[in-house]
Amino acid sequence: MDIQPYLDPFPLPAKRGILSDINKEKTEKAVQEAMENPEDVASQLVKRLLDPGAEGNDIQARHLLHTMAVRIPDYDRKVNTNKRAKFSLVLAKTLSGNYPDRVKAFVIRQLQICGREEVVPAIGTFLIIKGIADDAAQALIAIGKVSVAQFRKALPKVKNDLMLYRNVLHGLAELADESSKEDFLEALVNEDDECRLLGLWGLTQIGDPSTLEDFLKSDQQEKGFSRIKAASFCLQFAEKVQKKDASKIYRHLQKTRTLPEEKYLQQIVSSAL
Amino acid sequence: MGKTLGMKTNRRKFLKTSAASAASFQIVPRHVIGGQGHTPPSETYGAALIGCGGRGPGTYEGMVRDLPSKLVAACDVQKVRVDGYIKRKNPKAKPYNDFRKLLENPDVDLVAIATPPHWHALISIAAAEAGKDVLCEKPMTRFIAEGRAVVEAFERYKRVFQIGTFGRFGASRSSTSRTIHKIMRSGLLDPNSGVHIKKGGLKLHNWSGKPGLKPQIPSADLDWDLYCGPSPFKPYVPPRVGGTHRNYWDYEGGGMCDMGQHHFDPQQWIYGKDDTSPVTIEAFAPPSHPDVTGMWAWVELTYADGFTFVMDSKEWGPGYDRKASKQVSLSHLSEENQEKIKAMPDPEPLLTFAEAVKQRKQAGGHPEAAHRAACILHLANLAIRLGRKLQYDPEKEQFVGDEEANRFVNVPMRSPWHL
């Protein structure tokens, strides 16, 4: 199909390089027409996307594809179709194609807006690929708890790569995944301070009192800014648990935060106990 | 403040007290406690600036006004900026590239934050966690959930926060504004047909982005990874750094976010909306570009009581003509209710940052008020970006019946950053 008529109303940079010459009526009409056949339009649009460093421009294609991704969930709700899922699946399918990483990252970002459970496996495959894993992780987090399985699946494959490991731990912590309790505990003894903090944060997110002993043991190892963040996780953990466990955390802070510059923490803890 | 640590915040109770603006923290500042290596209260506050370019020096001066202080540290992801600032201001101050290291410094009591807005929330929260008081440039945040996290952190740590816009202080000294404030807070005006229209002043053309630029290699002086921080890691193009960061959704949100908090923060105080947000938001705008900010005509935001804020850009498309401007006044009330308003005490004076730091009370531009003012801008921008009328629940801080819109309320951050 020829998608050029849908692209033409979208502006190219005008004076000063900005998109000031944009016509609402014409662009809205083009979007409406593209929405009649979103699957075909989507697959054609992806073919027009370029690596940011490549010759040529894909400004109109990116603009239209993004507009469709933003509008299609509401379109679905209003006219009771299943176009959102079909559109998203077409985009997800392109992720296995031979496109540059930054093109795939852009497609993933559109799925972050409109995708749901149906696109999670396709995005999940990128959690183990450097340079695109963080785009995938953020999209999966946005889609929500249905993404947990993808992070769990990726976890054993990324343990030897610090950045990928952090990325997956971060996703599991953000999604407050209780089934990752042991993995958060394991992260507490990692030599990388960010991993240890992600472990503490993950345990804070799930707020399971059975992890308190290890949590507090790890907290007192931290130095500098990590020590500041760890104290914050302690306070947040205490807000999630019963009074008895909260008191345990406050007493721990009272005992460990004894440096002169930590007196503000002593004040907070004293008022809490 | 009334919150007992160890219990989940009762937001309504907190808002009731925080909106009054002068609740005491009951916790003395770190430097007042003194101790080895710490400045006694009779001397000076150790002050720091994070983000030394653009507005940075002005933000710092705004923070230390009326406070005995000295610059002890400064930080920027661009070495040349921090070195230049320290050389001009105090060559003995310590330079940092990473804000986390600066916050470890026990000599720092006060932190001015003037980075691009995608860093405002995380650095504000980290500063509170480190026991510092904060003056943060506007807009307070990049998305809605960040603001709630800042509110909770400053409540947890009982630190002082003031947003870097000060129009509400002048507004609160006007007798007309105080009367409107009292009418609005009294709940006697029901339904409320008040309409405040801001015409122009939102700098659409100034802060619209240039799409399609070819990536370049950032200068060795710039820590591009740390600059991007919680935002998506994108190929570097020069306008992403400097004042033109405003042109990218990744960092700010165009002229709306650059100027909006200046315009609407005072109005939010006048109209008594420091503890809530609009419930319906509708915009007239063309499809929005995925990366760069652009054109829009108007946005209409209506609160649960019927009161309406309007932004009429005057820079693109048709002018706003759905409602006429209508100021709230005593004449809208019955004689009996007018007497009730006249008998009401004036709102407590808003405290400046300096007064709040010295008295350990909430500043006039406290976190909840600043967050709600930033929400006006974020909600307006989301109506522009999503191209549909939005229904918003100001208590849950979520859109109603719109799962995909809610993905813009709490935008996932790049590892290892998180709220």
Briefly say what this structure is:
The complex is a heterodimer of chains A (273) and B (419). Chain A has 273 residues and is an all-alpha fold. Chain A is built from 16 helices and no strands.
Structure description:
The complex is a heterodimer of chains A (273) and B (419). With 273 residues, chain A is mainly α. In chain A, 67% of the residues lie in helices and 0% in strands. Chain A has a domain at 178-273: Leucine-rich Repeat Variant (Alpha Horseshoe), CATH 1.25.10. In chain A, helix 6 runs parallel beside helix 8. The longest helix of chain A is centred in the first third of the chain and has 21 residues, at 59-79. Chain A is elongated. Chain A starts with a helix and ends with a helix. Chain B is an alpha/beta fold and 419 residues long. Chain B has a domain at 11-166: NAD(P)-binding Rossmann-like Domain (Rossmann fold). Helices cover 34% and strands 13% of the residues of chain B. Chain B has helices at residues 11-18, 30-33, 56-64, 79-89, 99-104, 120-129, 144-157, 167-172, 175-186, 224-228, 254-270, 335-343, 353-359, 367-386, 403-406; strands at 45-50, 69-75, 94-96, 110-113, 133-137, 161-164, 195-199, 280-284, 298-302, 308-312, 390-393, 398-399. In chain B, helix 6 runs parallel beside helix 7 (144-157), helix 7 runs antiparallel to helix 14 (367-386) and helix 11 packs across helix 14 (367-386). At the A-B interface, helix 2, helix 4, helix 6, helix 8 and helix 10 of A face helix 5 and helix 7 of B.
Shape of chain B: globular
Strand order of the largest sheet of chain B: 3-2-1-4-5-6
Give a quick account of the main beta sheet of chain B: strands, pairing sense, barrel closure. Answer: 6 strands, parallel
Tally of helical segments of chain B: 15
